[in-house]
Every structure is written in structure tokens, then in C-alpha cells.
Amino acid sequence: MTGRRRDRANRRGRVGVAAAASVAGALAWLLAGPVGCARDSRELVVVYSPHDEPLRTELEVAFEREHPRLDVEWVVLGSQVILERVRAERAAPRADVWFGAAADRFVAAAREGLLAAYTPTWAALAPAGTRDDGDRWFGVYRTPLVIGFNSEALSPETAPRDWRELASPGWRGKVVLRDPRHAGSMQSMATAIFAEAVARDGSSAAAQAWLDGLDRNVRAYVDSPTELYQHLARKDGVVTVWNVAELDAQPRREKRPIGWRVPDGGVPILVDGIAVVAGAPHARAAQAFVEFVTSRPAVELAARRHARWPVRPDVPGDAMPAWTRRAAGAWRPLPLDAPVVADSMEAWMRRWTAKVAARPPAAPRAGTRLLGGIRRRAVAGGP
Questions:
Q1: pTM score of the predicted model
Q2: CA–CA separation, 298 vs 288, rounded Å?
Q3: CATH 3.40.190.10 fits 144-269+333-366, yes or no
Q4: Measured between alpha carbons, how far is 247 from 298 in angstroms, rounded to an integer?
């Protein structure tokens, strides 16, 4: 078993399912969770993460090179699902590290006692608003959410110019989004609109009307970033909202016709964090992983090779992603106070998630496997 594998949880899934004698056997495998390789004596560090496979793989290889006695196991889930799973596993935690989610998710988890304190060696450099007062989570990257589009069907000039336009009748049936029940970044985007409306009007009524209009325009809610890009590429929905780093990478990495624009109405800039899970089975390994991922070499690697925008202020300017320079001066951040969002998000999002849940399920496309009624793909989860 080598360090250079894409995602062992998913690869084992393919082997396990192929060998399963029945649906019951497949479900037993699904519920078993990540396990170490019997031939491998290294200590496991289990990481729950929504990040994309290229970033995960490169960080894993670099970390295991630096820590040859440790073995990273990824469990790839959307950030909202991670929060719910960490809650459910509170009495018997299975994760060591949670890597990837907007700060409001970590604020909520810290309040519930789900995260353990750990202070990285660089903690004094962390800018205001990018760390927990009790050192239970730290920001790693800044993640702006922008308007993405199929670049064969639209251009930056013809795509929706701001958030309000996304909800206008002219875009009915043309929007594709991640399912907000799974992708915390969708809830964070909508909550930023709500927070701005409340600050401006003293009421969330205008924001609720906007969200209702956006929901009417959505052609499909999808489970993963991969499905999102596939929908856009085949014009099964030509507009979306997603993080700029991954949208910007699609034409280069996957040759997909996907572009993006900075919305005129302001940009939700999420602080994407990392934390040690309270009661982590491999706490020392978890701390080592957090220290590594937030180290200057690792965040510089993520900036240069994966277009991530580091939180750390000591990363040299020439390492910053090209898209940060392309949109220089255009990033008008929408107010996104993580504690306020954590307090209000559930109430604000309840109506939207209920509408999504009430939609009839989409028929599985070719390549989707059905395991005991569970729709499952071996793809990255996404924040």
C-alpha cells in the first residue's frame, strides 16, 4: 500500500462493493467507515473534508513524506454533512481532523464542544476573524463565492451581474446549484444576503423573497462539485454560484467551458477552516496534520498549485493565485460575521432546505451506483 493513492476510502469502496454478496453486505461496508490497512503499521489520521481531490492528494503526499509514520485517510463529505456527522459521533468520535468549511460551521461546532483546542506555531499571525478565541479552529484559506457560467452560452457581460439578477424570471430553469442540505457554502452564500438585508432594512423579508425567486430558477440541485461542473459543461443549467478557485481551475484542469464573474452586489468571502475533533482517536497525529496544513510551505503550495487564497499574511505576493490579481479592486466583501451567521443560519435557511427536500429526486444518470437506495459517487464532496 503506497502513499500515492487518490482516495483510499473511495477505492476501497469500489473493491468492497464488487466483492459484496448482497445489498446487506454493501451497506455493512458503507457503515463500517474508514479502516487502516492490515499490512500498514503507520498510525492513522482520519480527516473529514469537502476539498477537491487534487488538493487532498498533494497535501497527503507532502504530509506523509514529512511524517512517514502517519497515514492519512480521507472521508469526503459536504461541509454541512460533516457538521451533522461530527455531532452524531460525539459520544464515539471517528474523525481526527475536520478540514474545510466556512467559519460559521466551526463556530457552531466549537460552541457545542465538538472541537478540541490546538494552537499552531504561527497562531500569532492569524488575522482578526480567522481564528477561534479558544484556539478550537483556525482559518486556512479565504474562499470568495462568485457567479459561474457556461462560457459557450454566456460571457461575463451576459451572465447575471449580481445576486438580485439570479432570482429574476429571465433565469428560470437556467440555474444549477449544490444542494444546500449538504453544501454549507450554499447556506453561507444565502445567509450573507440575509445578513445584508437585515442590516439594511431591519428585516429579512426582502432576502426571503430573493431566495424564493432563486429557488424557482433552479433547474437542479446536485450532490457534488463534479456533478455541478458536468451540468454546466453540458448546459443542463448555465449559471451557478460556487467558489472561485475551483471554477477558475476547470478550463485548465478539465477543459470544461466554465467562466466566472465577480457579482456587482458584493462577494461572500468565506474563511475556510481546520480543527482537531474533540475526542479524536489519534489526537497527536491530528495536531501534526493541522500544523502541517496551516504551515507556510503547505499554504504556499495550495496557493501556487491549487489557486487557494491563504489566510496567513506572510505568503509572498508572487505565490498568490492569478484570479486574486485578475479581480483586484473588485472584491467588495459582503458582511459575514461568523458568530451572527451561526446564530441565525438555521432559522433563515429552514424554508429553503424544506423546499429542496420536497422536490422529486432526479433520476440517477449513467455511472451512478445504487446501494440500498443510497446514491453514491466516488467524487470529491465540496464545501
A1: 0.81
A2: 13
A3: yes
A4: 21
